[in-house]
């Protein structure tokens, strides 16, 4: 009998769900974190990255050896660089130049070509450049912001995992919103299981800068976003998100990025309003992606 060993692609998903122990304080609620940093390329974006490439292949839209282009603030780019390396594509990634050094280095480590736009141009400028490059015939844009294969990955994997891991007891789901793929796909699945599950999205307050999530101008709002799939939106201050990010590492041993800290901050706020609830938040990635930013250097 020949043993069938998994490939690295087979290791995407099925991430742990763990309980917060100290930060919630005395409460009747159960606060759970989905550790997406345990994916092979280190973030929740491994799921849609692999999904977008695999499903485009199945439809005959791309073929091995093609050049793929994507605008990214970091995690999707790293995940796409990994997926392109697995499957044999050239990857061009466009991102704002204020993204962390670790993110840039991870992308190039997987063999991707990196193009930087200015901080002022931001993700909007990166998205515009990607579209211009595709129009010039320089490659195929997967477009995580408008690609249904992004939320579909979470509808078919993340949502079912959470439902199974909580044995159907989840009452609230909290997720930071960037492309909105995670919250769209998970909301669709959970609401099909129980309409009473509350979906809570997180966005930065006006003027706040939280890596990986955005308060989108209306003209750049992701096309995959459906407002009726989110029951409540929480505006998060950068300082609060950063504080909880540090406390997660120091008090819970959970090392993650600031968007995840923001999600947990929103979860803790929510917990104060509830009793006997089961709240699940997405921990998008790992904290080692942010060490050079100095976020963990600040005192408690």
Automatic annotation (TrEMBL):
<comment type="pathway">
    <text>Amino-acid biosynthesis; L-cysteine biosynthesis; L-cysteine from L-serine: step 2/2.</text>
</comment>
<keyword id="KW-0663">Pyridoxal phosphate</keyword>
<feature type="domain" description="Tryptophan synthase beta chain-like PALP">
    <location>
        <begin position="9"/>
        <end position="285"/>
    </location>
</feature>
<dbReference type="InterPro" id="IPR050214">
    <property type="entry name" value="Cys_Synth/Cystath_Beta-Synth"/>
</dbReference>
<dbReference type="InterPro" id="IPR005856">
    <property type="entry name" value="Cys_synth"/>
</dbReference>
<dbReference type="InterPro" id="IPR001216">
    <property type="entry name" value="P-phosphate_BS"/>
</dbReference>
<dbReference type="Pfam" id="PF00291">
    <property type="entry name" value="PALP"/>
</dbReference>
<keyword id="KW-0808">Transferase</keyword>
<comment type="similarity">
    <text>Belongs to the cysteine synthase/cystathionine beta-synthase family.</text>
</comment>
<dbReference type="InterPro" id="IPR005858">
    <property type="entry name" value="CysM"/>
</dbReference>
<feature type="binding site">
    <location>
        <begin position="178"/>
        <end position="182"/>
    </location>
    <ligand>
        <name>pyridoxal 5'-phosphate</name>
    </ligand>
</feature>
<keyword id="KW-0198">Cysteine biosynthesis</keyword>
<dbReference type="GO" id="GO:0004124">
    <property type="term" value="F:cysteine synthase activity"/>
</dbReference>
<keyword id="KW-0028">Amino-acid biosynthesis</keyword>
<dbReference type="GO" id="GO:0006535">
    <property type="term" value="P:cysteine biosynthetic process from serine"/>
</dbReference>
<protein>
    <recommendedName>
        <fullName>Cysteine synthase B</fullName>
        <ecNumber>2.5.1.47</ecNumber>
    </recommendedName>
</protein>
<dbReference type="InterPro" id="IPR001926">
    <property type="entry name" value="TrpB-like_PALP"/>
</dbReference>
<feature type="binding site">
    <location>
        <position position="75"/>
    </location>
    <ligand>
        <name>pyridoxal 5'-phosphate</name>
    </ligand>
</feature>
<feature type="modified residue" description="N6-(pyridoxal phosphate)lysine">
    <location>
        <position position="45"/>
    </location>
</feature>
<feature type="binding site">
    <location>
        <position position="259"/>
    </location>
    <ligand>
        <name>pyridoxal 5'-phosphate</name>
    </ligand>
</feature>
